[in-house]
TrEMBL record, chain A:
Source taxonomy: Bacteria, Bacillati, Actinomycetota, Actinomycetes, Kitasatosporales
Occurrences of domain Mop (ranges): 308-372
Source organism: Streptomyces macrolidinus
Official protein name in the record: ABC transporter ATP-binding protein
Entry-linked InterPro entries: AAA+_ATPase, ABC_SmlMolc_Importer, ABC_transporter-like_ATP-bd, ABC_transporter-like_CS, ABC_transpr_FbpC, Mo/tungstate-bd_C_term_dom, Mop_domain, P-loop_NTPase
Keywords, alphabetical: ATP-binding, Cell membrane, Ion transport, Iron, Iron transport, Membrane, Molybdenum, Nucleotide-binding, Transport
Automatic annotation (TrEMBL), chain B:
Primary localisation category: membrane
Name this polypeptide is given: Molybdenum transport system permease
Source organism, top-level taxon: Bacteria
Keyword Ligase listed: no
C-alpha cells in the first residue's frame, strides 16, 4: 500500500532490522516513542515506532498496560521517562489539547447533549475553526463515513455501529497525525462487530498518518493492523506482522491466543530437547535455544502404542480435562509433554476418553514448526 | 406528591443520567421507562406514608386555622406585597450568587486534588449546621461596617452591606449556597470525568471542556441544587434579620414579616405564611414542569 | 394531647377545656404547653395547704428580667429551704400566649401592661396585676458617644444610622410613643425584632445609635454609652406581676412576688437599671 507498509512484510526475517528502519523513518515522519510510566508496583516500558500509514495493534492481556500506553500517547497520563516524538516533534509535556492526536475511546464517550454533527464539529471548533466551517467539515466527514442521515441525531439515538463511526469521525475531524483507538470493537455485540470490523479496516487503510489501536482480541488485531506489538506486564514480548506472530508465537499468552502448543528448548539438529527432558522431532534443522509450535489439530491420540505410525513424536500422556471447542473436543493432556489436542467428537467417543485415562499422543514432525528463540 | 417533589426527582434523574453515560451511548434508541412493579412493600410504604403525613400535617393545620374571612383585608396591605416582592427578588439573586460562586467551588472540590480538601468540604457545609442567627452575627463581624473585611469596603468604596437589600442577598446566599455546592459536587462526582478527557483530546482547554461539556452534563444537578438553594433562601430568617435588619421594602422579607406579625397578630402571620407557601409551591411546580418538557 | 393525658390532674383537664375555646393562639403555644405540662407532672406539688413555701414555683418572666430575677430566685431558695424557682424567660407576648394556652405557671412578670392584658383578658390571673418596676427608654450610642447625641432630635440627623425596635414589640411601641410625644419623625435603618438585637447592632458598631431600655444599656456595660432624654418619661414601661389562676404552688408563688416587691427585691432590680414604680 505505502512504502512504509512493506517494512511489516511477513517475509522479513529479522525483527531488529525492521524496527531499525522504522525508527529511522519515524524520526521525522511518524511515531517514535518509548513510553515509561511508573505507577506504584506497575512499571510500563514500551517502545513503539510506526511510519505514516501504519496501523499498529497493541495486543495484550488485561492489566498488561495497553490502556496506560494509549493514555500516555494521548497525553492523559504523564510519562515517567522515555520520549514521545511525532513527526519529529517532541510531545512529552505537551497537554492533550495541543497534541495532534485523535482518540476513539472504548465506549466512545460521545457527548450526550450534542448531536452527532456537533460532536464531530467540537474538535475543529476548539482548535480555532469558525462555527460554520467546522460544521461543514463535520458534515463532510459524517457523509464520508455514511452517516449523513444521522448528523442531527443525539448519541442516545444511534446504534452501536453508528456511534462507533461518529466517534471515529470526531477523532479524525482534528486531522490527527496519530489516531488512537482503545478497544474499538469491544463495546459491540458479535453481529455488529463483524460489519464494523470490516468498515473500520477500510477506514484505517485510508488513513494517511499513524494509527495505534489497543485490543485484547487477537482477531481484531490481526484483521485491522499491519503490525502487532504484544505486551505483557508492561513489557513488549513480541512484535511483528500478524502472520509472523500467528506462526511463531514466543510466549504462552500469544500461543494461546493463536491456538498453538508452544515449547521452548534447545535445538540440536532435528531434535529440540525441552528442560523437562521431553524431545520433539522437527523438520527444521537448528541449533541453540529454540521454540517449537504445533496446532492441537496435529495431535492424534491412541489407546495402544501405535506401531506402524509414521509420526516421529510419541508421548505417554494422561487426560486431565475435556471440553467442547467449536465442533471438536479439546483434550488437555499432562505427562511427558503437556499439550492440547483437538479431536472430532466421534474419535473422542471411540477412544472412550475421560479424565485420568492414559493415552499415546503422536505428532508428525512435518506438522511442527521450530524457530530460534 | 413526593414524585413531584422537584429536588428529589431532580437529583435522582441526574445520578442515573450521569452514572450511565456509556450505556446511553451504546444501547441507543429512546430511553426506556423503568418497569413499574405494582405494590410497594409494606416496610417501605408505611414509613413513607407516615413521613409524608409528618411533613404535610403542619401545613394542613395552617390551612385549617387560616382566618379565611379576614384574609382579603390582610392581603390588601401593601407591606405584604412589598415583602413578597423583596423575598422573590432577593432569593433569586441569592441563588444567582450561589450558582456563580458555588458551581466553580463544587468543581474544585470534585475534580481537583489539593491538601486539606476534606477540611474545605467540611467547612463549606458549615453554614448548614450553624444556627442562622449565628451566621448573621458572623457575617456582621466579617462584612459589617466594622467587620474584618467590611471596614475596608466602607473605607475604600463606601460600601456598607448591613441594612441593605444587598445584605439580604448575601445573608441568604451564605445560608443557601452549601445546598447548591453539595448538590453540584455530588452530580460532578457521579458524572464521568472521561468526557472532560475526551474533550481535551479534541483540543478543548480545561475551561472550555467545563463550559461546553461538563456544565451541560451536570445541568440537571445544578438545577436541582439551585431549587434547593432558592427554597432555602426564600425561607431564610435568622441570618437575614441579624445581618440586614428589618426595614419594610428594603430588608423586610416575608419570613421577617411573618415573624413580626406573629408578635401581636397571629392571624396576619398565618395569612402571610399562606402567601409565601402558595407562591413557592407555584414557582417550584412550574419549574419542575419546565424541566420535564425540556429533558 | 397524649403527653398531657399522662398527667391526670383536674388542672390538666381544665386546661384542655380552656384550650378548646381559644382561637389562633393555640398554634403558637401548643407545643410549648405540652412540653411544659410534662415537666409540671414531676415538679408540681400540693403544698398550698401549708403556710411555709416549699416545692417548685414556676415563674414566667420577660427576657429583660433575666439577670435580676435569676439573682432573686437564688435568694428565694436560700431564704426558703426546700423550694426551687423554675424560670421561663422569653418575649412577654409569647409567654402570655403560652399561659393562655395552658402552660402551667405560677407567676407571670410581663414587660408591659398590654402583654399582661392578654392573660387578664382570659381571666388567667388570680387578682389584679401590680406594677413592680418601671423601665425607661434610653439612647444607646457607640462608646464615648462620637456622634455627640444628646437628645432624641439628634437621632433624626441625616447620615446617622439608628435602629429602633419594631412597633410590634414593647420597646418599639414605647419608642414610637416617645417620638410622637416629641413630634419627631425618625426613619431608622432597621426595625429590630427585639431589644437585644437592636442593642447588638450598636455593640457591633453597625448602627450609630439605638433606642433601647435603660436596663439594656446598663447590662451592656462599656460596649455602649447611654444617653437619657426627657421624652422617655412619656413612654415609661410598667412591668406588672401577677399570681396566675392555675398556679399549682400558690404559697410559694405569693412568697416570690412578695420578695420581688420587697425592699431587698427592689434593690436588685434598680441595680439593674429599673425604676421603682
Amino acid at each position: 500500500m505505502t512504502a512504509a507498509r512493506s517494512h511489516a512484510s511477513p517475509t522479513s526475517g529479522s525483527h531488529g532490522a525492521e524496527a531499525e528502519r522504522v525508527t529511522e523513518e519515524a524520526r521525522d515522519r511518524g511515531l517514535d516513542a518509548r513510553l515509561v510510566v511508573d505507577r506504584g508496583s506497575f512499571h510500563l516500558d514500551v517502545a513503539l515506532t510506526a511510519a505514516p500509514g501504519d496501523v499498529v495493534a497493541v495486543l495484550g492481556p488485561n492489566g498488561a498496560g495497553k490502556t496506560t500506553a494509549l493514555r500516555a500517547l494521548a497525553g492523559l497520563a504523564p510519562l515517567s521517562g522515555g520520549h514521545l516524538r511525532l513527526d519529529g516533534a517532541e510531545l512529552d509535556g505537551v497537554p492533550p489539547e495541543h497534541r495532534p492526536v485523535g482518540v476513539v475511546f472504548q465506549d466512545y464517550l460521545l457527548f450526550p447533549h450534542l448531536s452527532a454533527l456537533d460532536n464531530v464539529a467540537f474538535g475543529p471548533r476548539c482548535r480555532g475553526a469558525a462555527k460554520v466551517e467546522s460544521r461543514a467539515q463535520a458534515a463532510e466527514l459524517l457523509a464520508r463515513l455514511g452517516l449523513a442521515d444521522h448528523a442531527s441525531a443525539r448519541p442516545a439515538g444511534l446504534s452501536g455501529g453508528q456511534a462507533q463511526r461518529v466517534a471515529l469521525a470526531r477523532a479524525l475531524a482534528i486531522r490527527p497525525r496519530l489516531l488512537l483507538l482503545d478497544e474499538p470493537l469491544a463495546a459491540l455485540d458479535a453481529r455488529t462487530r463483524l460489519d464494523v470490523r470490516s468498515q473500520l479496516r477500510r477506514h484505517l487503510a485510508e488513513f494517511e498518518a499513524v494509527a495505534v489501536l489497543v485490543t485484547h482480541d487477537p482477531l481484531d488485531a490481526m484483521v485491522l493492523a499491519d503490525r502487532l506489538v504484544v505486551i505483557e506486564r508492561g513489557q513488549v514480548v513480541q512484535e511483528g506482522s500478524p502472520a509472523d506472530i500467528a506462526r511463531r508465537p514466543r510466549t504462552d499468552y500469544i500461543a494461546q491466543l493463536v491456538g498453538l502448543n508452544l515449547y521452548r528448548g534447545r535445538a540440536d539438529g532435528h531434535t529440540v530437547r525441552l528442560d523437562t527432558g521431553a524431545a520433539i522431532t522437527t523438520t527444521e534443522e537448528l541449533s541453540g535455544p529454540a521454540f517449537v509450535a504445533f496446532p492441537p489439530g496435529a495431535v492424534t491420540l491412541h489407546l495402544d502404542r501405535p506401531s506402524g505410525s509414521s509420526a516421529r513424536n510419541l508421548w505417554r500422556c494422561e487426560v486431565s480435562g475435556l471440553e467442547t471447542h467449536g465442533d471438536q473436543i479439546r483434550v488437555d493432556l499432562t505427562g511427558e509433554l503437556p499439550l492440547a489436542a483437538d479431536l472430532t467428537t466421534i474419535a473422542a467417543a471411540e477412544l472412550g476418553l475421560h479424565p485420568g485415562a492414559l493415552v499415546w499422543a503422536a505428532v508428525k514432525a512435518a506438522q511442527t514448526h521450530a524457530y530460534p528463540a | 406528591m413526593t414524585r413531584h417533589d422537584p429536588t428529589v426527582s431532580g437529583s435522582t434523574g441526574t445520578t442515573t443520567h450521569a452514572s450511565a453515560p456509556a450505556e446511553d451511548a451504546l444501547v441507543g434508541g429512546p430511553r426506556r421507562g423503568r418497569v413499574r412493579r405494582s405494590g410497594a412493600p409494606l416496610p417501605l410504604l408505611l414509613p413513607a406514608l407516615v413521613g409524608l403525613a409528618f411533613l404535610l400535617l403542619p401545613l394542613i393545620a395552617l390551612l385549617v386555622r387560616t382566618p379565611w374571612h379576614s384574609l382579603p383585608t390582610q392581603l390588601a396591605s401593601t407591606e405584604v406585597w412589598q415583602a413578597l416582592r423583596l423575598s422573590l427578588v432577593s432569593a433569586t439573586a441569592a441563588t444567582a450568587v450561589s450558582m456563580v460562586l458555588g458551581v466553580p467551588l463544587a468543581w474544585l472540590l470534585a475534580r481537583t486534588d489539593f491538601p486539606g480538601r476534606g477540611l474545605v468540604r467540611a467547612l463549606v457545609t458549615l453554614p448548614l449546621v450553624l444556627p442562622p442567627v449565628v451566621g448573621g452575627v458572623a457575617l456582621l463581624l466579617a462584612l459589617g461596617r466594622n467587620g474584618v473585611v467590611g471596614r475596608w469596603l466602607d473605607a475604600w468604596f463606601g460600601i456598607t452591606l448591613p441594612f441593605t437589600t444587598a445584605g439580604v442577598v448575601l445573608a441568604e446566599a451564605f445560608v443557601a449556597m452549601p445546598f447548591l455546592v453539595i448538590s453540584v459536587e455530588g452530580t460532578l462526582r457521579a458524572a464521568d470525568p472521561r468526557y472532560e478527557e475526551a474533550a481535551a483530546t479534541l483540543g478543548a482547554s480545561r475551561f472550555t471542556a467545563f463550559r461546553r461539556i461538563t456544565l451541560p452534563l451536570i445541568a440537571p444537578g445544578i438545577a436541582a441544587g439551585a431549587v434547593l438553594a432558592w427554597a432555602r433562601a426564600l425561607g431564610e430568617f435568622g441570618a437575614t434579620i441579624t445581618f440586614a435588619g428589618n426595614f419594610p421594602g428594603r430588608t423586610q422579607t416575608m419570613p421577617l414579616a411573618v415573624y413580626l406579625a406573629l408578635q401581636n397578630d397571629p392571624a396576619a402571620a398565618i395569612a402571610l405564611s399562606l402567601v409565601l407557601l402558595a407562591v413557592s409551591i407555584a414557582v417550584l411546580a412550574g419549574l419542575r414542569d419546565r424541566w420535564i418538557t425540556a429533558s | 394531647m397524649k403527653i398531657r393525658s399522662m398527667c391526670r390532674t383536674p388542672e390538666a383537664r381544665q386546661t384542655r377545656r380552656a384550650h378548646r375555646t381559644r382561637r389562633f393562639l393555640r398554634l403558637a403555644g401548643t407545643g410549648a404547653a405540652a412540653l411544659l405540662a410534662l415537666s409540671a407532672c414531676s415538679s408540681s406539688s400540693d403544698a398550698s395547704a401549708s403556710k411555709k413555701p416549699t416545692g417548685t414555683v414556676t415563674v414566667f418572666a420577660a427576657a429583660s428580667l433575666k439577670e435580676s430575677f435569676t439573682t432573686l430566685g437564688k435568694e428565694f431558695e436560700k431564704e426558703h429551704p426546700g423550694t426551687k424557682v423554675s424560670f421561663n424567660f422569653g418575649g412577654s407576648d409569647s409567654l402570655a400566649a403560652g399561659i393562655t394556652s395552658g402552660a402551667p405557671a405560677d407567676v407571670f412578670a410581663a414587660a408591659s401592661p398590654a402583654t399582661m392584658a392578654l392573660v387578664t383578658d382570659k381571666q388567667g390571673t388570680a387578682g389584679a396585676p401590680v406594677t413592680f418596676v418601671r423601665n425607661q427608654l434610653e439612647i444607646a450610642t457607640l462608646p464615648g458617644n462620637p456622634d455627640k447625641v444628646s437628645s432624641l432630635k439628634d437621632l433624626t440627623a441625616s447620615g446617622l444610622k439608628v435602629v429602633l425596635c419594631d412597633r410590634t414589640v414593647p420597646c418599639g411601641a414605647a419608642a414610637q410613643k416617645a417620638l410622637d410625644a416629641a413630634g419627631l419623625k425618625l426613619t431608622p435603618v432597621s426595625y429590630e425584632h427585639d431589644v437585644k438585637s437592636a442593642l447588638t447592632k450598636v455593640e457591633l458598631k453597625e448602627a450609630d445609635a439605638a433606642v433601647v431600655y435603660r436596663t439594656d444599656v446598663r447590662a451592656a456595660g462599656s460596649k455602649v454609652a447611654g444617653v437619657e432624654f426627657p421624652e422617655s418619661a412619656k413612654a415609661v414601661n410598667d412591668y406588672p406581676i401577677a399570681l396566675l389562676k392555675n398556679a399549682q404552688n400558690t404559697t410559694a408563688a405569693k412568697a416570690f412576688i412578695t420578695l420581688v416587691r420587697s425592699e431587698e427585691g427592689q434593690k436588685v432590680l434598680t441595680g439593674a437599671g429599673f425604676l421603682k414604680p
